[in-house]
Amino acid sequence: MAKDILIVDDEADIRELVGGILEDEGFQARAAKNSDEALREIGSRRPSLVFLDIWLQGSRLDGLEILELIKQDHPDLPVVMISGHGTIETAVAAIKEGAYDFIEKPFQADRLVLVAQRALEASRLKREVRDLRERSGEAAQLLGHSSAMNQLRHAVQRIAPTNSRVMISGPSGSGKELAARTLHGLSQRSSGPFIVINAATITPENMEIALFGTETQDGRRQVGALEEAHGGTLFIDEVADMPRETQNRILRVLVDQNFTRVGGTSRVHVDVRIVSSTSRDLEREVQEGRFREDLYHRLSVVPVRVPALAERREDIPELIQHFMMQISRSSGLPVRTVGEDALAVLQSHDWPGNVRQLRNNVERLMILAGGTPDAIITSELLPAEVGASLPPAPGSTRAEHLMALPLRDAREIFEREYLIAQINRFGGNISRTAEFIGMERSALHRKLKSLGIGS
Ligand SMILES: Nc1ncnc2c1ncn2[C@@H]1O[C@H](COP(=O)(O)OP(=O)(O)OP(=O)(O)O)[C@@H](O)[C@H]1O
Question: What keywords were assigned to this record (predicted)?
């Protein structure tokens, strides 16, 4: 597909000239004559490259101000400044602000095409490096500054350099794999591989082959996850789903420090740290005889718990911001502002699917928010399943129900729901809740007591 280039210049003949040269080279060109047109064009579909004039006559914002906005919303979008006579110093300043390069008017067609090609290539390489880093887990970070997340991060930092086996528990989508990747990244094995095997998605028949590999009589070998992870970390996701037979074999590997491939006889020695995860209560699985107790103790030398998102609602704004930037980088959708009303709903929802569900919702909201760059995400855009945790809007069935009550009763119901939702939103922190809702801390305590909330 042809690369899409936006040319921002107040002079019509420059727009035409640059557009013509780029189209002759097989690019697609769009043009804008001022800042408003430029921002509208970028908002409707992110171009692959922007040529941006520094001095824009009759425009609300000049080139440097537009550059600043572009770098805020689309940090990876390459921008080449067009400088006229006397604006070279500004062009150099623009490079410090994140522009890729500049060309000086009047310019040669060859130079223009070369700069465009180089900027596009540099941007492609940057994206490729980032994708590789993300895939290898290097760039993945456990975000959130709630006390629960701070504790988790400290635990991971402390445990990482040891060689101990770790059992990570937590509900689905809460970040167990990310915690395991972080652990690996901070360990002495970080330059070795991080291999994932999911016991819930591999059939019991294939589980042993996936873990141990195969070996035929004529000596042909297929490497399994344990061998692949040599020198690094093997992450066994949903370990509780491991069939009993495989549990026996894994236990033997842990005791003997070696194993044989399926069908083979030669012993394979590997140096692998095993990190496992479970979204089930593994102690209960042990009590009920579904998981070997001795294996449980060997795998769970250091237990780590990842809290559900509902236990750390304060992290939600930071996560939303992070996912917006991440999704924007990969899809080109513009980063949005989430309105106070929508944020309140998102923070009071219980998120049974945890961080993964939040990320999916952020993506859906970015798509639904439409093409204009300044569109604010309001609570109306939220899907019904999330909106259900909202205190009832006027006109809703709940509001009609309240209408049937005397003021005192209706007020009490509303106050109770409102305060519970706000306290949850601030992770149970009464001082921050009081500050946000505009009440004295002691008055809020009295109110909660009178409504029978909390202690
Ligand atoms: N604290 C966090 N900061 C940033 N991203 C996070 C955080 N926690 C989870 N994520 C992201 O949420 C998604 C789900 O996380 P992950 O796959 O680690 O969860 P999980 O608990 O292993 O899920 P499952 O139980 O389904 O295997 C991933 O995209 C991950 O990068």
Answer: Activator, ATP-binding, Coiled coil, DNA-binding, Nucleotide-binding, Phosphoprotein, Transcription, Transcription regulation, Two-component regulatory system
Q: In the CATH scheme, what is the code of domain 397-451?
A: 1.10.10.60
DSSP state of 308: P
Q: How far is CA 331 from CA 30, 46, 75, in A?
A: 20, 9, 13
Single-letter amino acid code for the residue at 447: K
Q: Which of 356, 359, 362 to mutate to test the pocket of ligand 1 (most atoms within 8 A of CB)?
A: 356
Beta-ladder partners of 275: 166, 235
Q: Measure 357 CA to ligand 1 centroid, in angstroms.
A: 10
Query: How far is Cα 183 from Cα 289, in angstroms, rounded to an integer?
Result: 30
CATH of domain 147-307: 3.40.50.300
Asked whether residue 284 carries a pLDDT value surpassing 60, the answer given is yes
Nearest CA to ligand 1 atom 31: 178
Q: Is residue 164 pLDDT above 90, yes or no? A: yes
How many other CB atoms are found less than 10 A from the CB of residue 397? 8
Does any ligand 1 atom lie closer than 6 A to the CB of residue 142? Answer: yes
Distance 312 CA to ligand 1 centre (A): 14
ipTM: 0.98
Q: 41 and 66 in contact (C-beta within 8 Å)?
A: no
Ligand 1 touching residue 356 (CB < 6 A): yes
Distance of CA 217 to the CA centre of its chain: 47
Give the pLDDT confidence of 212-270 residue by residue, as tens digits: 988 887 767 777 899 888 888 999 999 999 988 899 999 999 888 888 889 988 888 88
User: 343: which residues sit within 8 A by CB, 6+ positions away?
Assistant: 316, 317, 320
| Ligand 1 contact via 237 beta carbon (within 6 Å) | yes
Q: Does domain 310-387 have CATH number 1.10.8.60?
A: yes
- Please give the CATH topology (third level) of the domain spanning 4-136: Rossmann fold (3.40.50)
pLDDT in tens, 34-85: 999 999 888 767 788 999 999 999 999 999 999 999 988 778 889 999 988 7
